[in-house]
Design goal:
The chain is built from 11 helices and 11 strands. By secondary structure, it is α/β, with parallel strands linked by helices. GO terms for molecular function: L-malate dehydrogenase (NAD+) activity.
């Protein structure tokens, strides 16, 4: 098996450090390039370079063409760069700073790793993914099969919280619940009716469960009390995402995940428009992964009336966030 290079942008941060640790343990990885604007990334890289795994680990900052060095040859780039929330903030409040960071990193990827798979973690994901897509399009290197908004943490939370509600807190890995829409509050749409195995959760218990999945991020922001947002659970989710993608692309193990993607140019993407009743270019959907990245978008499936209401409640905010990200991306051309 030939080993590939991964790059983590924002590798010195709260997510970046544990995500780099987990990435270095992926069996497909031969090199992990840790990029961050903060020089402490050299220490993180030195630390991880002592692991006795297959991966070589190197750290880079902006000095000495660091972004170019980090990205050149990378086949997958994960981006947890940017500022996190503090109590009282929405993810959208991060847009002003993080949109520029994403634009700059997307430009770097277009220049130095144009065929890389990209996983965008930086918030607000509902807008930063459009910033990435517009920047890559303007550079002529956009491939819709390779750009993912990482919403895996919502799926991780759904499994865990459902397991707790049904009184089986140790059996979270067994519960697979699709979560679609976007990655922010009401735009997060858990499809509990499609849980495998099936669960019977209704009434106030269902309302509370949905609210907890939608606002799980706030729970962590509040508990951290000014020291940031979810980092370790996000790194865990980010590694799940990376493992699934690399297994499909390099390991011959296709699978289905949910991710926030650009629909118009993906096989099956058009049909989502009819299912949601509105033309949104971006939506978190189930995608079939294969050798090229996203092979096709799968239908949302049967929603019950409760889920149809969640969907309708999600659309205005999601639409606004997309317009904002696309507008920013286009204004930079
Ligand atoms: P953090 O502040 O701990 O780390 C961010 C890192 O990014 C820092 O080390 C910083 O130096 C670096 N950075 C800033 N600008 C950069 C640039 N231009 N290039 C490279 N690195 C740069 O923050 P964190 O807790 O790791 O969160 C990072 C982002 O991830 C936030 O926007 C947060 O909201 C988001 N997040 C997303 C999810 C999700 O589910 N998608 C979950 C949790 C957090
Ligand atoms: C999360 O869902 O935990 C992240 O998006 C971080 C946040 O700001 O809540």
């Amino acid at each position: 098996m030939s080993l590939i290079k991964a790059a983590i942008c924002g590798a010195g941060g709260g997510i970046g450090q544990p995500l780099s640790l987990l990435t270095a343990q992926n069996p497909h990885i031969g090199e992990v390039a840790l990029f961050d604007v903060a020089p402490s990334v050299y220490g993180v890289a030195a630390d991880l370079s002592h692991l006795d795994g297959t991966a070589v680990v190197n750290g880079y900052t902006k000095d000495n063409d660091g972004l170019k060095q980090a990205l050149t040859g990378a086949k997958i780039v994960i981006i947890p760069a940017g500022v996190p929330r503090k109590p009282g903030m929405t993810r959208d409040d991060l847009f002003k700073i993080n949109a520029s960071i994403c634009r700059d990193l997307a430009t770097g990827i277009a220049d130095y790793a144009p065929d890389a798979i990209i996983g965008v973690v930086s918030n607000p994901v509902n807008s930063t993914v459009p910033v990435f897509v517009e920047t890559l399009k303007s550079k002529g290197v956009f491939d819709p099969k390779k750009v993912f908004g990482v919403t895996t943490l919502d799926i991780v939370r759904a499994s865990k919280f459902v397991a707790e509600v049904v009184g089986k807190p140790n059996q979270a890995p067994q519960y697979k619940i699709p979560v679609v829409g976007g990655h922010s509050g009401k735009t997060i749409i858990p499809l509990i009716s499609q849980s495998k195995p099936a669960v019977d959760i209704q009434g106030e218990t269902l309302d509370k469960l949905i609210n907890r999945i939608q606002f799980g991020g706030d729970e962590v922001v509040k508990a951290k009390d000014g020291a940031g947002s979810a980092t370790l659970s996000m790194a865990y989710a980010g590694a799940k995402f990376l493992n699934a993608v690399l297994d499909a692309v390099y390991g011959g193990k296709p699978s289905v995940i949910q991710s926030y993607v650009y629909l118009p140019e993906l096989q099956g993407g058009d049909s989502i428009k009819n299912e949601i009743g509105k033309e949104l270019a971006y939506f978190s959907v189930s995608v079939q992964l294969g050798k090229q990245g996203i092979e096709k978008v799968l239908p949302l499936g049967q929603l019950n009336d409760y889920e149809k209401r969640l969907l309708q409640d999600a659309l205005p905010e999601l639409d606004q966030s997309i317009v904002k990200g696309v507008g920013f991306g286009k204004s930079q051309l």
